[in-house]
Design goal:
13 helices; 47% helix; homodimer; 5 strands; alpha/beta; disordered N terminus
Amino acid sequence: MNLSTRRSFFKKAAIAGITAVSIPQIISAAMPQHHNKKLSINVGDRILFQGDSITDAGRKRDALGPNDQSALGTGYAFLASAAMLNKYASKNINIFNKGISGDKVFELADRWDEDCIALKPDILSIMIGVNDFWHKKNGNYEGTIDTYIKDYTNLLERTKKALPNIKLIIAEPFAVPGVKAVDASWFPAFSDYRKAVKAIAEKFDATFLPYQSVFEEAQKHAPGSYWTSDGVHTTIAGAQLMSEAWLECLK
Amino acid sequence: MNLSTRRSFFKKAAIAGITAVSIPQIISAAMPQHHNKKLSINVGDRILFQGDSITDAGRKRDALGPNDQSALGTGYAFLASAAMLNKYASKNINIFNKGISGDKVFELADRWDEDCIALKPDILSIMIGVNDFWHKKNGNYEGTIDTYIKDYTNLLERTKKALPNIKLIIAEPFAVPGVKAVDASWFPAFSDYRKAVKAIAEKFDATFLPYQSVFEEAQKHAPGSYWTSDGVHTTIAGAQLMSEAWLECLK
């Protein structure tokens, strides 16, 4: 159905209180077990969230210890941290967020020694790519899809070399069509970045987190604008959706 | 066991990865069904969090719409909002936080027309009392336990008169002994405030949220300092604990 038909459907559904499936079911549907390798949380684990503005989510940049709210921002990384710190209370875990707004893969690479390797994470979650596509699209960046694949592959080879036992969660960049920044001109070119990330996740034996599928399923409950403010950045509901999907990567 | 024995127990438990019960079990144990009346969330419901600094949790004071992260702060109210906005995506709910740091009951009363009645909440959650006790104790306030009971009762009578169909969640103030601000001198006097709140909740047919019991149960998993930074304000783990307990008040 088109956008206006869909809006009308949602309006009716909202009035009637109809919900075909629950959010946990959305996440299971979008993340079939065989696509995923669930990770264990062990005592003393250090967990690092890396990425761009979606991960950053307004975190304070000053050097702060792990498990500090202001250092974790107010997005999915914070929400997932709150859930983990509660659920694994006896496991003495340490969680860091080093996402930086606007970053592309090469910018992660520039700060990787300090913002990843030195932190010695046991679990590293990365979501990067929407700016690699978007900044190229709007003429502010020269890198192509090939640059993205090469830079991302190099970054992970470097990571595995420095931290051979690291466990990786690699999240698919997502874009929600019809919401502000994201229009039809994003597709199918943006999908190449998504496919590339999935292939990279497989190559590095990472747990793949299919956020595009999660947001597509979520739109069966409420329109895209309920989940993202501009097609790329999350509302509170979208951040919680991302957090719950992220937590599904754990055993 | 005393604090040092307990710390040693937690250390051993953490090393061994022992967890007697899960956090959801903590919450069920602390909140037996018969002590509670679960509330439904209906389409279009307006939900208001009211209280002191624990509810405030750094929210932005500027006039902002509902469901805005910065307007909801970064504490239990935000975490519970994120969960609700996700779970009830098709219900078009509107959530507000009007907690203000340092408030006692009479200060809620001073701003009640604007910060409660005018917002026409369908569900009102209040947690207030720790400052009524604490500021009296440190000599910065004259009000006694009787003042607290009288002010709180008047506030709720006024609320029910203006909004006869309002559904109330009344949360027990809590204090975690042995963590910074909270020492033995708080007890048993502080417990009078807790008992008073429970009686008030019963009188007004509210859903009672026994936070002291929740935090006591949580200390079987990790020490008080894991859940609160000073005995009164929450860490991330404590805020998530409060959020999960709050959500247990819903059907």
